[in-house]
């Protein structure tokens, strides 16, 4: 049995939930893939998450050394906004499980602010280091878009955990700077480790074959992938399509489901109707994560119009498939995408600027190919094995594990 043991706390993002619907997205993908890759390196990981309505087994395994343990705290259907009140109950249940099974861990790694509260308490009680990845920060989200409202407790907990955590993982220099500037975090405690991508799943395929499998004709395809919610800025995608004066046929594909009933989806559909684009936009709904390479490969351009992204896994997945990305210059997107080399970053959420970049790409096969090749090359440095080795080393500094990575972000 391995000597390295970590507990992951991911209260509301079960790594087994399908991303792209409800609240499931990049965080669920990150937790699952990171744990699996650390497991492949020999670490035993228990992931503690809240019991939710689709749980069939209390304990599920991923590979040979990762377990997902569902802990009852609050009603399975409870909304994320109600979970703060259930944190003590979750902590107590994790402790009970740990004691019943005689489990010890060398490090606790928590994901998102709710989990960071639990991770802090648990690590302090066990006398082991606490590593935290916030995934998003309340103060940054609220600064990014008028109308973003966060629970009052959230920035307070984020600040308190930043002060006590042994190590904080930030996805980009932008996120690290925000921790220091907005929350007073100690920069020396913040490490930059990017998200990763599964390079064997997200890889270049023959475009014609991918299009054939999706039943597409010869139109140029603009692709959006992600949860449908206001922060994702889908209005900009529609306005961009409305600005295109390409002589070629252009279709827009929106992959992903609405986070909140159909509120944002209805708003986007209405805008599409007002712009007379109803027949050009396909709302595909949620697609199985492992089916997405077909969509990225069928697309000419992947558009990421978000108001804010702490990382932006979708951009990295598109690049890994060799598809150019046009994105807003915000958060982690400005770190992943190299402007002019792997795609284009637009400083303003301005449809003219987006349309101009998209037009440039779809009207030049040579440009599309060179951006795509550079994107794949960049993504190759961000496979999960590399990223997991960097995270392992963050634990190693705190626990005395032997180090693994010679790769720095
Ligand atoms: N995704 C998916 N199916 C969908 C839509 C999205 O598997 O129908 C996945 C996508 O591949 C990506 C994640 O959901 O891995 C979204 O992550 P991102 O960081 O772009 O956004 P977040 O959800 O974290 O805001």
SSE order, one letter for each helix or strand: EHEEEHEHEHHEHEHEHEHEHEHEHEHHH
Largest sheet data: 8 strands, mixed
Number of domains: 2
The SS-based structural class is: alpha/beta
Mean pLDDT: 94
Cα radius of gyration in angstroms:
21 Å
- How much of the residues is beta strand, in percent? 15-25%
For this structure, the CATH topology of the largest domain is Rossmann fold
- Going across the biggest sheet, name each strand in turn: 3-4-2-1-5-6-7-8
Determine the CATH superfamily of the largest domain.
Glycogen Phosphorylase B
Between the first and last Cα atoms, what is the distance in angstroms?
A: 31 Å
* Unreliable residue stretches: none
At a glance:
This protein has 409 residues and is an alpha/beta fold. 41% of the residues lie in helices and 16% in strands.
Question: Which structural traits does this protein have?
Answer:
single chain, 409 residues, alpha/beta, Rossmann fold, 2 domains, eight-stranded mixed β-sheet, globular, binds uridine-5'-diphosphate
Structural commentary:
The radius of gyration is 21 Å and the shape is globular. The strands form two sheets. The chain has an eight-stranded mixed sheet with strand order 3-4-2-1-5-6-7-8, with helices on both faces. The model has no long low-confidence stretch (mean pLDDT 94). α1 (26-40) crosses α15 and α7 (207-213) crosses α10 (292-298). The protein is 41% helix and 16% strand. The chain has 409 residues and is α/β, with parallel strands linked by helices. It has two domains: 5-196 and 383-399, Rossmann fold, CATH 3.40.50.2000; 207-381, Rossmann fold. Uridine-5'-diphosphate (UDP) binds at residues 19-20, 25-27, 29, 225-227, 255-256, 286-287, 289, 292, 311-314, 317.
């Amino acid at each position: 049995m391995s000597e390295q043991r970590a507990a992951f706390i991911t209260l509301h993002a079960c790594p087994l939930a399908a991303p792209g619907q409800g609240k499931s997205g990049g965080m669920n993908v990150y937790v699952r893939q990171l744990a699996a890759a650390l497991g492949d390196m020999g670490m035993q990981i228990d992931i503690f998450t809240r019991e939710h309505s689709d749980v069939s087994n209390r304990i599920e395994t991923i590979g040979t050394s990762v377990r997902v343990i569902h802990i009852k705290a609050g009603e399975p259907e409870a909304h994320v906004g109600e979970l703060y009140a259930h944190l003590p109950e979750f902590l107590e249940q994790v402790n009970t499980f740990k004691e019943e099974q005689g489990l010890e861990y060398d490090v606790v790694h928590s994901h998102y602010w709710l989990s960071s509260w639990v991770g802090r308490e648990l690590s302090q009680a066990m006398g082991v280091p606490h590593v935290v990845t916030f995934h998003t920060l309340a103060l940054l989200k609220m600064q990014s878009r008028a109308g973003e409202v966060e629970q009052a407790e959230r920035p307070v907990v984020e600040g308190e955990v930043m002060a006590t955590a042994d190590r904080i993982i930030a996805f980009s220099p932008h996120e690290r700077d925000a921790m220091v500037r907005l929350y007073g975090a100690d920069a020396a405690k913040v490490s930059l480790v990017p998200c990763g991508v599964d390079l064997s799943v997200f890889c270049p395929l023959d475009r014609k074959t991918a299009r054939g499998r999706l039943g597409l004709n010869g139109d140029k395809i603009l692709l959006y992938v992600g949860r449908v919610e206001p922060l994702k800025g889908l209005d900009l995608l529609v306005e961009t399509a409305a600005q295109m004066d390409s002589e070629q046929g252009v279709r827009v594909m929106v992959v992903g489901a609405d986070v909140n009933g159909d509120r944002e989806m209805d708003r986007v559909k209405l805008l599409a109707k007002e712009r007379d684009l109803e027949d050009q936009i396909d709302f595909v709904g949620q697609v199985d994560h492992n089916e997405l390479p077909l969509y990225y490969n069928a697309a000419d351009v992947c558009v990421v119009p978000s108001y804010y992204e702490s990382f932006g896994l979708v951009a990295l997945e598109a690049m890994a498939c060799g598809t150019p990305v046009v994105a807003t210059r915000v958060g982690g997107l400005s770190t992943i995408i190299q402007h002019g080399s792997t795609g284009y970053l637009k400083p303003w959420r301005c449809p003219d600027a987006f349309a101009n970049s998209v037009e440039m790409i779809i009207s030049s096969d040579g440009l599309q190919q060179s951006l795509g090749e550079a994107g794949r090359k960049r993504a190759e440095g961000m496979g999960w094995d590399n990223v997991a080795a960097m995270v392992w080393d963050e634990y190693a500094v705190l626990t005395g594990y032997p180090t693994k990575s010679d790769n720095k972000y």
